[in-house]
Automatic annotation (TrEMBL):
Record keyword Oxidoreductase present: yes
Keywords: Oxidoreductase
Protein name: Aldo/keto reductase
Assigned GO CC terms: cytosol
Keyword Phosphoprotein: no
Molecular-function GO terms, alphabetical: oxidoreductase activity
Coiled coil, from the record: none
Domain NADP-dependent oxidoreductase: 15-315
Pfam families attached to this UniProt entry: Aldo_ket_red
C-alpha cells in the first residue's frame, strides 16, 4: 500500500481508501457481519482511512466503524460529514450550535474524542458563499474535537469557492472516467494551495465495472433506483449524472480498458490513482470480495499517454454533453 499526504496536513492516507455509504444504507441489502469482515480485510491490507457520514444509515456506518476500529484509533483515520441530517437550506443548520451538536453526535457514534476530517456534506452553494460554517469549524478545531475540516462538493464551482477559505484542508469530489472536469482547474489549484483531494464515486455507481445492461434493475431502497433522475438529491451522485441507459452504452465502449488489467473496474481505479493531484480514492463496498477487487487496482498496469489521450477525447466527445446537473 502506498500512502499520500492529505494536502499539507500531517495526515498520510492510504491511496486506496474506502467509503462507507454502501454499508450504511441506500445501496440495497447488506449484512453487518460481512461489512465488519470487509472492514477488517481492508485494514489488514494497509487501508488506514475511511470516509463516512452521519446520514449513512442514520449513523449506522459510523457505529460500524467504531466497532471495526476499536483499539486502532491511533492508526486508522476517519472522515465523517454533517448537515444533511438537517434542513440543508436552513441557515440554522450551519450555526455553531447545530454544527457542534452534529459533531458531538458523530463523536459519540464513532466512540472517539476527535474527528480526523470533518466535512460539510454537499451544502448549497449559498452556504459556501456565506462562509460562517467555517467559523464554527474553526472553533471546534481549536477545541480539539476536529483535527482538520473540509467540504464534500458537487461541482467544480463549489470546489473553487471553498479554496477561498484557508481552513479548508480537503475537498471531496466526484471524479472518474465519466467526470473528468475537476482535473482541468480545480485539482491544480487545490494542489497549489495544499488542499487534499478525496475522490468519491470512482466507478460511477457501478457503471464503470461494465457489469450492467440496459435491463439491470436495483432494489427500491438503492439510490440507483430512487435517485436515478435526481429525485432525492443531486443527480450527479448517481451514475455520474448520466441517464442510466446512456451510461451503460458508454461503459460498453470503454470495455477495452480492462484488457490486461484484471477487470474494467480495476482499470478505472488505476486511471484515477495515476493522477498525482489526488490524495486518495474512496470506492464503496458491501463485502470482502468487493474490497479485494478494489485493492487489485493497486497492481494493475498503468495507462500509456496515448491511452489517456484516447480516454480524454472520448469523454469530451461522447460523455460530457450527456451529463446532467451542475458539475
Amino acid at each position: 500500500m502506498n500512502y499520500r499526504q492529505l494536502g499539507n496536513t500531517d495526515m498520510h492516507v492510504s491511496e486506496m481508501s474506502f467509503g462507507t455509504w454502501a454499508i450504511g444504507g441506500s445501496w440495497g441489502s447488506v449484512s453487518d457481519e460481512e461489512s465488519l469482515r470487509a472492514l477488517e480485510a481492508a485494514m489488514e491490507a494497509g487501508v488506514n482511512f475511511f470516509d463516512t457520514a452521519d446520514v449513512y444509515g442514520d449513523g449506522h456506518s459510523e457505529r460500524l466503524l467504531a466497532q471495526a476500529t476499536k483499539g486502532k484509533e491511533d492508526r486508522v483515520l476517519i472522515a465523517t460529514k454533517f448537515c444533511r441530517s438537517g434542513d440543508i437550506h436552513d441557515a440554522d443548520t450551519y450555526s455553531e450550535a447545530s454544527v457542534r451538536a452534529f459533531c458531538e453526535a458523530s463523536l459519540k457514534r464513532l466512540e472517539r474524542e476527535r474527528i480526523d476530517l470533518y466535512q460539510v456534506h454537499c451544502p448549497p452553494i449559498d452556504v459556501l458563499r456565506d462562509g460562517s460554517v467555517f467559523e464554527a469549524l474553526d472553533r471546534l478545531k481549536a477545541e480539539g474535537k476536529v483535527r482538520e475540516y473540509g467540504v464534500s462538493v458537487e461541482s467544480v464551482e463549489e470546489g473553487l469557492l471553498c479554496l477561498q477559505y484557508p481552513g479548508v484542508k480537503a475537498l471531496q469530489v466526484i471524479y472518474n472516467l465519466f467526470r473528468q472536469k475537476p482535473e482541468e482547474e480545480l485539482f491544480p489549484q487545490a494542489k497549489a494551495q495544499g488542499v487534499g483531494i478525496l475522490v468519491r464515486l470512482p466507478l460511477a455507481s457501478g457503471l464503470l465495472t461494465g457489469k450492467f445492461t440496459e435491463s439491470s434493475t436495483f432494489a427500491a431502497d438503492d439510490h440507483r433506483s430512487f435517485n436515478r433522475n435526481g429525485d432525492s438529491f443531486n443527480v450527479g451522485e448517481t451514475f455520474a449524472g448520466l441517464p442510466f441507459e446512456k451510461g451503460v452504452a458508454l461503459a460498453r465502449e470503454l470495455a477495452w480498458i480492462g484488457e490486461g488489467r484484471g477487470s474494467m473496474a480495476s482499470a478505472a481505479l488505476r486511471w484515477i490513482l495515476e493522477n498525482g493531484d489526488i490524495s486518495c480514492v474512496i470506492p464503496g463496498f458491501k463485502d470482502t470480495r468487493q474490497v479485494q477487487q478494489n485493492l487489485s487496482a493497486l497492481e494493475a498496469p498503468g495507462f500509456t499517454p496515448q491511452e489517456r489521450e484516447r480516454l480524454r477525447a472520448f469523454y469530451e466527445a461522447s460523455v460530457r454533453p450527456a451529463i446532467r446537473g451542475p458539475y
